[in-house]
Each structure stands twice: as C-alpha cells, then as structure tokens.
Design a protein that fits this description.
Helix content of chain A: 55-70%
CATH class of the largest domain in chain B: Mainly Beta
Distance between the termini of chain A: 91 Å
Shape of chain B: elongated
Largest sheet of chain A: none
Largest interface: A-B, 26 and 36 residues
Structural class of chain A: mainly alpha
Number of helices of chain A: 3
Oligomer: heterodimer
Number of helices of chain B: 2
Low-confidence stretches of chain A: none
Strand content of chain A: under 5%
Largest sheet of chain B: 8 strands, antiparallel
CATH architecture of the largest domain in chain B: Ribbon
Strand content of chain B: 25-35%
Number of strands of chain A: 1
Order of helices and strands of chain B: HEEEEEEEEEHEEE
Number of domains of chain B: 2
Low-confidence stretches of chain B: none
CATH superfamily of the largest domain in chain B: Umud Fragment, subunit A
C-alpha cells in the first residue's frame, strides 16, 4: 500500500469541518425566494390588488 | 470553521435579514398606500346582497365602480374635485343612502335635475313621455293603487337642482326614490362599470357567463 494514501490522524475532523462550513454557507430555498426583489414586488402587487378587490355591500 | 469566521458569518446573515425585513416593510406600506389610493380615488369593489336591481345585478355579483367620473371626493371632507360627467338617465350609480350615510345603495338614474317624474300603473313618465328601460322588470302582477302606496302610482314630482331620481330595476321590490326622495349630488359615490365576479349562493356555483360583463 502506498504511504501517500494513508489517512492522517485528524482526517475525519478535517472532513467534518469542511462539511460544516459548506452547510453553514448554504441558503435555503425559502430564504432565497424571500430575498428576491421580484418576489417582493409580486407579493406587494397581489396585496394591493386584494385590497382593491375587497368588497363592500351595496343595496 | 473557526470562531471568528462563524461570528462573521452569523453577523452577515443578521445584517442581510434586517435589510430584507426593511425592504418587506417598505413593500407592505407601498401596497397599503396603493390600495387605499385606488379605492378612494379610482375604483372600488362592491358586492350585491339584495335583489333590488335584478335582473341587471343578481345577489352575489361583485362589481367595480368608477369613482372619479363624478368627481374624486377628498377623504374626511365634503370637498370634491370637479365632475368629468354628470349622471345621465339610465346610468347605474352607487351613492350614500340619504337616510343612513353609512350604507351604500345602487340604483338606476331615472330623472335628472329639472325632470318631472310621474308613475302611473307601474309605467314611468319623464316630462310627460313614457320612459321604459329594457332592464326593468315587474315581478308582481298586482298594481297597488295610489291611496295604498307609492310603488305603482307616484308623483308627479320635479327633480330639484343637484339631485337625481333613482329606481331599482326590480321595480316591484326596490326601496328607492319613490320612498325616501332624491339623491343629492354630494351623495354620489360612482358609476357602476363591470361585473368581475358572480357567485350563485343557491346553486353553489360561479355564474361564469356574467363575469366581465359591463353594466348598462
């Protein structure tokens, strides 16, 4: 067996640190959607339309 | 990840979240202001709960009313911008009920200022000429004599300045100018334009064929 492929004693902790760093930097889909300006405009526009279409009784 | 980069990362997320929150608050405020401005000055949506305008408007119809055509009213005041056009005979208008201004009524204009109105055996005469509208309906075959009520025999009356005589299309089942008098110009809310939704409560279904129809 080649010595080059022998794992170092802290191999697992190094890999886990990288996995942790990667997971910490990931952004969830919900967060990504919320942070889109177009989503804000769509929600605001829908809210305004909903407000306009709120009905009042007329006899 | 060491402690320093963890702190940096969490503070970056906190700043980003704060800025998103600010943007959302701005967007919500903008939506509220936009909706209020449109409802006050341009268009308002109304729902029909009564049968007084059948068959033009059925219970469950939702309609849009043009609020600027009769002059935009300045909120919380009696001030009004100039009218683009005056209500005409045959227009379907929304107005504040003169006996209780917290309620809105919708009826068809029959007489404008200066007109003389006479109702004789359910027939409406305006300035001596028979006025019949294709939308009016009479669902009660009985004619009530003048001595017993104003429904089928009324007047003559002359419409005063800045006032309108209005009637429901369902002539035999409508509480209108025959009973409570004229609509003042200051009570006008707007002109009914289009039906944007229609829900049949009895059959529990949408009346698709009525949606998008103009109100004339």
């Amino acid at each position: 067996m080649n010595e080059e492929y022998k794992p170092s004693p802290e191999f697992v902790s190094k890999v886990m640190e990288r996995v942790y760093a990667y997971e910490s930097s990931r952004i969830s889909l919900t967060w990504w959607l919320i942070s889109q300006p177009s989503m804000r405009y769509i929600l605001a526009g829908s809210g305004a339309l909903f407000g306009v279409l709120q009905t009042v009784s007329v006899f | 990840m060491d402690n320093r980069s963890e702190t940096l990362c969490s503070s970056w997320i906190s700043v980003k979240a704060k800025s998103e929150l600010q943007e959302y608050i701005k967007a919500i405020l903008l939506a509220v202001i936009l909706a209020l401005a449109v409802r006050t000055c341009l268009l308002q949506s109304f729902r029909i709960p009564s049968s007084s305008m059948e068959d033009t408007l059925l219970v469950g119809d939702c309609l849009l009313v043009n609020k600027f055509v009769y002059g935009i009213r300045v909120p919380f005041t009696n001030l009004r911008f100039p009218m683009i056009q005056s209500p005409k005979q045959g227009d379907v208008i929304v107005f504040e009920y003169p006996k209780d201004r917290s309620k809105d009524y919708i009826k068809r204009v029959v007489g404008v200022p200066g007109d003389e109105i006479l109702i004789k055996d359910k027939q409406v005469y305006v300035n001596g000429a028979l006025y019949s509208n294709i939308h009016e309906v009479h669902k009660d075959p009985v004619t009530i004599p003048a001595i017993s009520g104003k429904r089928d025999n009324f007047g003559p009356v002359r419409v005063p300045n800045n006032s309108y005589f209005v009637m429901g299309d369902n002539r035999d089942n409508s509480c209108d100018s025959r009973y409570w008098g004229f609509v003042g110009r200051s009570d006008l809310v707007g002109l009914a334009m289009i039906k944007w939704w229609s829900w049949d409560h009895d059959k529990w279904r949408v009346r698709w064929q009525r949606i998008g129809r103009s109100i004339d």
